[in-house]
What does this fold into?
Amino acid sequence: MRILLVEDDKDVAGFVVRGLREAGHVVEHADNGRDGLFMAASETFDAVILDRMLPGGIDGLKILETLRSQKNAVPVLILSAMAEVDDRVKGLKAGSDDYLTKPFAFAELLARVEALNRRGKGEGPVTKLVVEDLELDLLSRQVKRGGQKIDLQPREFRLLEYLMRYAGQVVTRTMLLEGVWDYHFDPQTNVIDVHVSRLRQKVDKPFPTGLIHTVRNAGYMLRAEQP
Amino acid sequence: MIDRGLLRSAGFRFGAVYALLLAFSAAALALFLWWATAGLLDRQTEAAISADAQGLSERWTDGGLPGLVVTIEDRLAQNVDDDAIYLLTDPGMKRIAGNLASWPPAVSAAGPWYELPILRAGMKSLANVQRYDLPGGFHLLIGRDVQVRSQLRKMLTNALLWAVGGVLLLATIGALVIRNLFRRTLANISATSVAIAGGDFAQRVRLSGRGDEFDQIAEVINDMLDRIGRLMDGVRQVSNAIAHDLRTPITRARTRLEDAALHAESADDLRAAIERATQDLDGIVGVFQALLRIAEIEAGSRRSSFAQFDLAPLLAEVADLYGAVAEERGIVLRLEAPDAVPAYGDKAMIQQAIANLVDNAVKFSPDGGTVRLTASVSAMVFVAVEDQGPGIPLSERERATDRFYRGETARSTPGSGLGLSLVQAVAQLHGGNLRLEDNRPGLRAILSLPLAEAADSRAAAARLVV
It folds into this structure.
């Protein structure tokens, strides 16, 4: 992925750039709003990571609003220390695709940026998700693995659907909370782990290979067993 | 310069308005008095002269010139007040009868009133006269000596002028008194404000006890000060809590890092220590976020997002989210709620509050126990969460919603001590409350929420001021 990072804090920017490059992405960095807007408007990126408070007179929201007013639909993730609900709502209203508050874990940022790319492509309405021998039919709401029908609760179905949509990518616990339960706070207890382990009981346990993997210090990933 | 400064003073304006009103009413009163006395005298004189003329003209008609002369002389003789003035002349302006020596040249036409000085019996005087022309070229002058009346009128005028001066003086004094009264009343409020601005927050505006408008304002101000005081206490509580309760995990993270830097034997050791320290820091961030969220809720800024919504699906979601965890530990999480539960407020906040209550209940419930999540609707919406855990002893229940407060029985379980504080804050923002009861055994937490907008506490506060 070609990613633009607009962030004025040197330490944070250096850390994020290094991390993203290690994960195999091409990263451009702007350390003020003016350069950020110029680069975002004149070049093509797969995703933009945008700090809200920037030097140079143009803040993150301004950049975002300008891009959107120019019909630029590049996926944008706002990375900000402004953590109030209103700040978040403002960011999403201005046209951002995701909002992550500082301080953050890099794994969380990476997972969300990569998910952004998937979301941005918009392959049109999908009716069936397939990973290896696991099939999820969105119309009949049926799940089959190796031709064998699996009974899932509605919530388990949505959890599996989310994991399959982002198959091959890390999905963090907060992403699941937001995407599947629409919860925007940390429930403290390990509720997500329990839900995922129950899903595993049905989707992985009866079969020789597991598809849902735990990624240490990050979250989960649904992918085919690697050779 | 001075004028502008004075005009800006409300006390001066009130005083000035008082003075103007007083002066205006005094002037109106004086004018009426003048009209009713001096004016009346003038009108009486004129009426008497007109009546005289009427009588004399009848005489002329009946008895001709001799009759008129006799009548004039009769009237002069009978005039006790000695104020009547008559003069009858022939066409050559020569005197025939009357008590004036000669015709005053100023009186040249019949009809208008003349006020003129005359010489009568050797005395200077003032008279009000009118001229009548009789058939045959004779002229008649009828008048009244108004010397005395004129003096009276002068006295009256003088008295009224003095009175106007007096009124102006009184008005000025009154204005000053009113201004001082106003200042003194405001000085109370102003002194309190100054004291508070200076840091003495215990000060309150004194009430006069009369229950007047100033008392009402004072009460509103005192209510406001109480509310600000509570908020400041909250802030102080939070900063104390941060100072004490966050010191522990920060110390732990710091120790881990330092220990690793000094004693780690291998890269793996180091990595593991750093990872644990990062987890500690994440925990601290979590506490911060919870604190900020509570502060955000207490500030009330989210009230704009309040809306009517159905609580039932939200309850089902919470039950679903925690159901899996409960089942894992053999706990039965039972949801008992009507099909539709109307509520009014911020959906995300209420969701978090209920999630916190259920989280607590599942956490403290013994394995194999039952947690009940129930909702009922009457005057308000009541959401109750019951568990069979250790509960909270009566002595601790009051403080259970304080930030960072952790009961004796809760010390061993993980948690920040902020869960119930958040629920309490959400309840208060919505004009509801959080009640903690004994479930014998366990805890029953009851969250009450308003059904509709009417429960908005701010509307009630606004009515007080108007």
User: Anything to note?
Assistant: The CA atoms of residues 208 and 225 of chain A lie 11 Å apart. The helical segments of chain A are 10-22, 33-42, 60-69, 85-93, 106-121, 154-165, 173-181, 191-203. Chain A has two domains: 2-121, 128-222. The longest helix of chain A spans residues 106-121.
